[in-house]
UniProtKB/TrEMBL annotation:
Span of domain Glycoside hydrolase family 2 immunoglobulin-like beta-sandwich: 188-287
TM region(s), chain numbering: none
Signal sequence annotation: 1-19
Glycoside hydrolase family 2 catalytic domain span: 290-507
Protein name as annotated: beta-galactosidase
Residues annotated as domain Glycosyl hydrolases family 2 sugar binding: 52-183
Needed cofactors: Ca(2+)
Entry keyword annotation includes Hydrolase: yes
Keywords: Calcium, Glycosidase, Hydrolase, Signal
Record note on quaternary structure: Monomer.
Length: 927
């Protein structure tokens, strides 16, 4: 009996201890990956006028209800489109006498709530903020209860519509974040706000709900593995009896930064007569954020540069209803691009997103909604308090933003400081305010000129506005190098993270970006990686590896710079690899050899050199790779360097000898040359390739070379036999035929083309030659060079040298369906390329460095300002020595920096010695 009594007593005590913590009982699901069906009635639009069910959380448009609206208050059923929700739930009898809060994490846009037919409280106006009602006196305990929620898509509050629904983004309706009940003791800890500084100072303000009896709050700080960080500490309630302040100093805490996201947890206990009444646990980080005017942003005493992106809470099939899994996905993608910051555009995010930023390490700029309009002061005051109450303890949140691009209510600025225990800095996006010039989309010359002539810290909260394949990586290197070296520049935020393409349930499930308005992402709607993803990864790598030419005297030394703020290079890992590439007809895996790397222990911002311990035979390989990983074993980047150049590759690939001499005939208009089963026809007047055939038939590769931005004045062709080779070439004449073309046909069947030419003008956009080939006949390409993504003149980084394979696709960046990498476009550093066709394959090689090959022309697209206009040459397949840059949504390509400008040629004298030269080799054997 004693044993049974003791067991029952211990079980009861355990239940009592457990009961002291806040209990959370979900009425909805926890995210878009785990939902609960509620009863639902939509008042207008699709599937309206009938009771059915809907998953919660969700946006009702994605569930087939109402009307889709993209931004700018395009609510056609203004004030009429509502969602009526009903949900039955149980309230156990054991809850009676407790405090029961009904919590909504986010509802679009106005919310009216009833419990068992009675209002739970006033209507909540505003979409992105957590709010709660005390429903303790409305519940039927030990019985069923009815929750009724009326959600109005368009707010009755004009200022809410100005701030939230006249924006450049999708507008939705519905309960899109979780709904749950908080079950607390009658006396409880209502709210905790923490300020933990880098010097170990810990302060907390604790709001209480009490019965006027003297109470005490104790606290114990732990590491995440459960070890106590110092002894417990406590404070008693004062005269107000509803607030307690606690303080403690923790010696030498592990600090939180984006590079070192060290967190702690603290357990608060509400004690009455020494007995625990309620327990709350919070996670936090020790860190200090300081703004030094006319200087910069300092975290834990270190000046930082922000490498950030704007992020909407968005998923194609669920709108703004997300999940922690998606938050982890997004933060990891940002970290993979070597970003250290994210701006919450243009509203607060889900709590789990901030949790992930805390744990993985991203600086966060958290934003009170406001696009070009703002909340009125009473509404803004309420929502600002909800924002700070919800997000105050996240160490990742280092700044507040009071609205975007004119959506600033200045009367709210002092309230941020009043409500925030940490007194975080406040900025206005796109305004010179609070010591920060945050102007958006300044041209490079303006931004790097005018900005630097001012005195404010420069921090563009939006720059390089992506659209389709423009912006983001295109222009970033120019901007970033200027920002990095400017002492007044604090970094910036790209616009934006992901394409806002929504599944249209009213249009057979197509992905809709509302034209070019939503196609602004670095990644696609489902987080497909576009080419700029990898450019950003390299440009923003905190380890900067300088370019080296691996000549015969190379000793394995690579200059590096540590661009971390808090991390020593000794904490990173470096791996080296040598690779010998296979040929166009080889299916075997390329031989590889690893080598070790010695890296100096460089403090942040120091420069030095790493030393590759290269084997004696390193020159026998084609490419050298160096991979750097951070202390968490996340790849920073893999750099590739050429050991063998195209001339070596061409020498081993191109065969000249054949079984029989070259056969040559001519007619009135054509030269016909045959060798080893290959027959080619050239125009006698222009030298242009007119036809290609082999034993198996014709290859439709014709009409070249045609100079792009050069005069096609190849004239006066002659032919001769040179050893075993046949040579056809034009004649140089200074005034009328200063560009020359030479064809050499080898007995092997290989053909050499050599063009010597002058670009047509001082400034040129495109430099090279074109050929014709029917796009419908192309199946795939395999090439040796930089890949696998296409490049632009102002977006050359991010790729790697190697052998790549790519099947033909019609992907247009930012539009669906997508198959990345895109097939069409410019590709860099050609050695050779094998074209797989519906007929016979053929191979093109070069012995020149820095040759681009271009595959067809993507669909021409632009924007209303004609900033984004991709420029491609004529013809179908091109071999270029100068390609075009690309603009963004808000800037033409020339204004994104030096790399965006046209090519300049000083030697336009038509002297043969000053001409550009391009050599190509063709294998039309069909092998």
């Amino acid at each position: 009996m004693t044993y049974r009594f003791a067991t029952v007593f211990l079980l009861l005590m355990a239940q009592l201890v457990t009961a002291q913590s806040t209990e959370k009982r979900y009425l909805s699901g926890t995210g878009n990956d785990q939902t609960v069906n509620w009863q639902f009635f939509c008042t207008a639009g699709r599937n309206s006028g009938k009771w059915t069910t809907i998953p919660v959380p969700s946006n009702w448009e994605l569930q087939g209800f109402g009307k889709y609206n993209y931004g700018f208050a395009k609510d056609s059923a203004r004030g009429k489109e509502q969602g009526l929700y009903k949900h039955d739930f149980q309230a156990p009898a054991s809850w009676k006498g407790k405090r029961i809060n009904l919590v909504f994490e986010g509802v679009m846009t106005d919310t009216e709530v009833k419990i068992n037919g009675k209002p739970a409280g006033p209507r909540h106006e505003g979409s992105y903020y957590a709010f709660r009602y005390d429903v303790s006196n409305l519940l039927q305990y030990g019985a069923g209860n009815l929750l009724e929620v009326t959600v109005s898509k368009h707010s009755a509050n004009a200022s809410v519509n100005e701030a939230e629904r006249k924006g450049d983004f999708w507008l939705f309706g519905g309960i899109f974040r979780p709904v749950y009940l908080e079950i607390l003791p009658a006396e409880h800890l209502e709210h905790v706000a923490i300020d933990a500084r880098a010097d170990g100072t810990f302060k907390a303000q604790v709001q209480l709900v009490t019965n006027e009896k003297p109470l005490e709050v104790s606290a114990q700080i732990f590491t995440l593995n459960g070890q106590k960080a110092g002894p417990p500490f406590s404070a008693k309630t004062g005269p107000e009896n509803n607030r307690v302040s606690l303080a403690k100093i923790i010696p030498n805490p592990r600090l939180w930064t984006s590079e070192t996201p060290n967190r702690y947890k603290v357990e608060f206990r509400l004690l009455q007569a020494g007995k625990p009444v309620h327990t709350v646990t919070k996670f936090f980080g020790f860190r200090t954020v300081e703004v030094k005017p006319r200087d910069g942003i300092y975290v834990n005493g270190t000046k930082i540069k922000l490498k950030g992106v704007n992020r909407h809470s968005f998923w194609p099939s669920s709108g703004r209803a997300l999940s922690k899994k998606l938050s982890v996905l997004d933060v990891n993608l940002m970290k993979d691009m070597n970003m250290n910051a994210v701006r919450m555009s243009h509203y607060p995010p889900d709590e789990h997103f901030l949790d992930v930023c805390d744990s993985l390490g991203l600086f966060v700029f958290d934003e009170l909604a406001g696009w070009h309009g703002h909340y009125d002061t009473p509404t803004g005051t309420k929502l600002l308090k909800e924002l700070i109450t919800h997000d105050v303890n996240h160490p990742s949140v280092i700044f507040w933003i009071n609205g975007n691009e004119g959506g600033h209510n200045y009367e709210l600025d002092p309230l941020f400081t009043k409500e925030d225990i940490q007194k975080r800095p406040v900025i206005h996006a796109w305004e010179d305010f609070g010591g920060f010039d945050t102007q958006h989309y300044r041209e490079y010359n303006y931004g790097i000129g005018n900005y630097n002539h001012g005195h404010s810290i420069t921090l563009p909260t939006e720059f390089l506005h992506g659209m389709y394949d423009g912006g983001h990586g295109a222009g970033l290197e120019d901007y970033w190098e200027a920002m990095w070296h400017d002492p007044l520049a604090a970094g910036g935020f790209l616009w934006d993270f992901a394409d806002q393409g929504v599944v249209r349930t009213d249009k057979d499930g197509i992905i809709d970006t509302d034209g070019n308005r939503g196609a602004d992402g670095i990644v696609g709607p489902y987080r497909e990686k576009e080419g700029s993803f990898f450019t950003i990864k390299e440009v923003w790598s905190p380890i900067k590896l300088e370019h080296r030419e691996l000549t015969s005297t190379f000793d394995g030394t690579f200059p590096i710079e540590n661009r971390y703020h808090f991390t020593n290079t000794s904490q990173c890992m470096f791996i080296g690899k040598l690779v010998k590439m296979s040929g166009p007809n080889d299916a075997v895996k390329s031989p590889e050899k690893r080598f070790s790397i010695s890296v100096p222990a460089l403090q942040p911002l120091q420069k030095g050199a790493l030393k590759a311990q290269l084997p004696a035979d390193w020159r026998n390989y084609d490419f050298l790779y160096i991979t750097a990983t951070d202390p968490h074993r996340r790849e920073l980047f893999t750099w590739s360097f050429p050991i063998s150049l195209p001339d070596k590759s061409a020498a081993s690939l191109v065969k000249t000898d054949g079984p029989a001499p070259v056969s040559f005939t001519e007619s009135d208009s054509l030269y016909t040359v045959s060798a080893n089963g290959v027959q080619v026809l050239f125009s006698k007047r222009t030298g242009i390739l007119k036809q290609v055939a082999n034993r198996n038939g014709t290859i439709p590769f014709t009409n070249g070379p045609v100079l792009q931005e050069g005069v096609n004045n190849f004239k006066n062709f002659t032919h001769r036999v040179e050893g075993k080779n046949a040579v056809i070439e034009s004649t140089f004449e200074r005034k009328t035929s200063y560009n020359t073309l030479q064809w050499t046909i080898y007995p092997s069947g290989w053909i050499k083309m050599k063009v010597r030419y002058f670009p047509d003008g001082y400034f040129t956009t495109l430099v090279g030659v074109n050929f014709s080939f029917p796009e419908s006949a192309m199946k795939a390409v395999k090439w040796m060079g930089k890949g696998p993504y296409r490049v632009w003149k102002n977006r050359m980084k991010g790729g790697a040298l190697g052998v790549w394979n790519k099947a033909y696709n019609k992907t247009e960046t930012g539009e669906t369906p997508v198959v990345y990498p895109e097939f069409k476009g410019y590709h860099a550093n050609l050695y050779w390329c094998r074209f797989e066709t519906t007929g016979q394959p053929f191979t093109v090689a070069t012995d020149d460095e820095d040759v681009f090959f271009r595959l067809f022309t993507p669909a021409w697209k632009t924007d209303q300002w004609h900033n984004y206009e991709p420029i491609f040459p004529s013809g179908d397949l091109s071999f270029m020595q100068g390609i075009s840059s690309i603009g963004s949504k808000t800037q033409r390509n020339e204004t994104t920096g030096p790399m965006g400008m046209k090519h300049i040629y000083y030697d336009y004298e038509k002297e043969p010695a000053r001409a550009k030269e391009l050599t190509l080799f063709f294998d039309f054997s069909g092998k």
